[in-house]
């Protein structure tokens, strides 16, 4: 009798699993292991079984991506809308947290409202775009953080906000971190943030990795932003929590080349915020400085501990991807130990 009950229970479980698989075709999703998305969140909730999340996303047309994070007794599922023209490398990679990102493969054409695209509405002769889309018919993503701000995306003072952007000429969209002023963060380091290793290969540095407080935007994304026919300025912000000292330095005409040329950096003259007295730790007025990693070193830099960077002769110790305890920049022409650093791009 016990055997019959056991096999009956097993049969019911198998039938349930088969039915669930039948209603959720996982071939409709691209699975991105150890990736996660943080933008365009419509819903978030916990579930006991991950297939509950697959089923919900699969059945709702608006759900374009699903981020899954294991927790005790189940999973947290985050459902994203309005995500198009993306791939796994559009989103940060981070090991050790067991994230899984699923991107819906099927092509979704939102209903037109008098020619308006991407779920925009037609009102008084104009298309009213969802935040993050722009164009006459709301047909495209914003191309950078400045345009996001101009298009009505809510940016928050003293914080960064996750925004989908698609630079002009780029063949995919990606998630960017935008600050209140419309700058794009390309590097964030924070002494009290998640522990993220920056000693990575050249290939790993091509694409975004890390968490919000210790984050790299990816060389491919930096190249895409900087090669739209516009001029960008680079900002480096440093903060020492112990003394409260903080300052910014700016560099004119920051530019990088493509991967075959090792993302060579060209940078103009330094500009310093009045009264802040920051000094040049990057190397102003330099051209053709390659991005170097442990597997593609330049003149011995970096070593097996430090991260990838544009290493300028004489300024190697100011690489902002060095281990947390040794992140230095220059202040009043002397070494400055920074607890928090951000590097951002501003379109002029």
TrEMBL record:
This protein's UniProt keywords: Signal
SMART domains: FBG
Family annotation (PANTHER family): ANGIOPOIETIN-RELATED PROTEIN 5 (PTHR19143:SF185), FIBRINOGEN/TENASCIN/ANGIOPOEITIN (PTHR19143)
Organism: Lottia gigantea (Giant owl limpet)
Annotated signal sequence range: 1-22
Gene3D superfamilies linked to this entry: Gamma Fibrinogen, chain A, domain 1 (3.90.215.10)
Name recorded for this polypeptide: Fibrinogen C-terminal domain-containing protein
The keyword Signal is annotated on this UniProt entry: yes
GO CC list: extracellular space
Domain Fibrinogen C-terminal: 136-311
Metal-binding as UniProt keyword: no
